[in-house]
Amino acid sequence: MYARALKPLALVTAGVVAVAFGLIFFWAPLDADQGFIQKIFYLHVPLAIVALLGFLGAGVMAALHLRTRDRRWDVRSYVAVHLSIILAVGVLVTGSIWAKASWGHWWVWSEPVLVSFLITFLLYAVYQPLRFSIDDPERQARYASVFAIAGAAFTVLNFVAVRMAQAYTHPRVFSETGGNMPARMFVTFLVALAAMALVFATLWTLELGSKRASERLRRARRRRERAADREELVALGRPGGEAVPGARSRAAGGTDGALQPAATPSTAPR
Q: What is the 3-state secondary structure (H, E, C) of 52-110?
């Protein structure tokens, strides 16, 4: 399913990204106050919006996993969190560059928007260490789903709190007055936002397809190992796969030990 959807999705994504870059550099006007550096806005803000939506989507998929016990929803939630964390790093990097060029500081600790996004990023940075510190697959998926749901709830509450807080430095893109952007800037921003959303969807589909292929490969390897076990048992004179005393046992990771011959009764004279 993912392999069939990936190619057309990638082509659409490449086309929209190309259009977005063309609009950003050749159609959208320069900002009267900030000049050319303001164009980083078309990357920084879509990154932030898509990252936050990715965290919310991961929470929804985690809730579906807890409800249905279908491991596929857990994998989808994991990939969404994983990609959103990468986008969040991009938000922090581009935001620092823009802040240095516009305000003369890499970071402003008194600004609620900046600090709240950093807190959200640090919260989700704990997700993967927590997930992979649990060996049991069922407990790992269950605890990760609970974390993703709690993180999504925190993201919503954090966003609402920031919107209600007083803005000190950071501008509000979607303010109560509509953002105060010229029409050409706003259209360019919407196209850039669509391009970033498509990039996220393409990477999400690609990683899910990769994980599905890896799982199929592991299953094929296990089937081949079981077939090899049966052939070796038959070669030892035990047709039908009858258990042989001292035969190799399968370790927890799926690795076979050495095959030991069955013990033979003593032939010493009475």
A: HHHHHHHHHHHHHHHHHCCHHHHHHHHHHHHHHHHHHHHHHHHHHHHHHHHHCCCCCCC
- For 133-178, how does the pLDDT look when each residue is reduced to its tens digit (9 = 90+)? 888 888 999 999 999 999 999 998 888 877 776 555 555 555 444 4
Q: Record the pTM.
A: 0.75
Q: How far apart are CA 145 and CA 66, in angstroms?
A: 7
* Domain containing residue 135: CATH number: 1.20.120
58 within a domain of the structure (yes/no)? yes
Q: Please name the residue that has the structure tokens 């990097």.
A: 93
Range of the domain at 14: 2-170+180-220
- Give domain status of residue 194, yes or no: yes
- Strand partners for 250: 256
